[in-house]
Amino acid sequence: MTNALKNIIYNCRQATFLIEKRIAGKITAAETLQLHVHLAGCSVCKIYQQQSILINRVFVGFENSDFKLDEAFKKTLNEKIEKEINKN
Amino acid sequence: MQNETDKEYTIKNLHSDPLSWVEKYADYLYGFAFSRIRDEEAAKDLVQDTFLAGLQRLGGFEGNSTEKTWLTAILKNKIADFYRKRSSHNLKVGSAADEVQGFFDVESGHWTEKDYPRAFGLEVDNPLMMKELGIVLNDCLAKLPGLWFSVFSMKHIDDLASELICTELKLTAANFWVIMHRAKLNLRACLQKNWN
Prior knowledge:
CATH superfamily of the largest domain in chain B: Winged helix-like DNA-binding domain superfamily/Winged helix DNA-binding domain
Distance between the termini of chain B: 70 Å
Number of domains of chain A: 1
Largest sheet of chain A: none
CATH class of the largest domain in chain B: Mainly Alpha
Number of domains of chain B: 2
Protein name (chain B): RNA polymerase subunit sigma-24
CATH architecture of the largest domain in chain B: Orthogonal Bundle
Number of helices of chain B: 9
Distance between the termini of chain A: 75 Å
InterPro entries (chain B): RNA_pol_sigma-70-like (IPR039425), RNA_pol_sigma-70_dom (IPR014284), RNA_pol_sigma70_r2 (IPR007627), RNA_pol_sigma_r2 (IPR013325), RNA_pol_sigma_r3/r4-like (IPR013324)
Family (chain B): Belongs to the sigma-70 factor family. ECF subfamily.
Structural class of chain A: mainly alpha
Helix content of chain B: 55-70%
Domain RNA polymerase sigma-70 region (chain B): 22-87
Low-confidence stretches of chain A: none
Pfam families (chain B): Sigma70_r2 (PF04542)
Largest sheet of chain B: none
Shape of chain B: elongated
Number of strands of chain B: 0
Helix content of chain A: over 70%
Strand content of chain B: under 5%
Largest interface: A-B, 42 and 53 residues
Order of helices and strands of chain B: HHHHHHHHH
Oligomer: heterodimer
CATH topology of the largest domain in chain B: Arc Repressor Mutant, subunit A
Mean pLDDT of chain A: 89
């Protein structure tokens, strides 16, 4: 067994790092294999991976329309714009 | 008198009506900004700055794109500035190392037992539950260091290439991935702690 493979079998820090790298970018074929071997034997990191993907999903799922300005602020904004126009 | 005519001329030839901006776009722009920076006051400031910058550049707007697209482009630049400013105050990647150390045994790299990820026990196809999870996640996001949040948000909301984020925020590729990893470890732990 190669050293890299040996190192990751018990190394959850490295495995979770590769999980993040795979989700948000890409990892090499060798890293994919290492991660696969790790996950086959580590149920804790498997939970981590599921939850990590879930977090991204929830994060991206926020609708912009969920966030609204209060009317008072809008009124002030409008006044500022009007003032700015009249300046010119 | 000359001025009066000039003004009339200008207003007639504009492709945009700034007096309708707030009503039409303020909520949209605010949502756009807030979802990316998660800071109410700062997001309000950015919306205001966007409108004021728009007024300044009104003459340059030729109606080739919609007003909304045009204003959003201005806002995007302001958000990028905001990220840069915040990350330059916050470049202590080193201090982040301590926080990640808590999760794993220093020697073996194994999860320390108290940090084991445990099932959240939620139904992912229950929209109400997911919405609640979103609220908890929001609080957790607010606790992240500004730089981490910027990196996380640029990657996931704007789907920017990692290389571009590194250039914008002056990060090395190695630091970028360290931050992505730590941000997620902290978010997940925060959710586990505050969910239920």
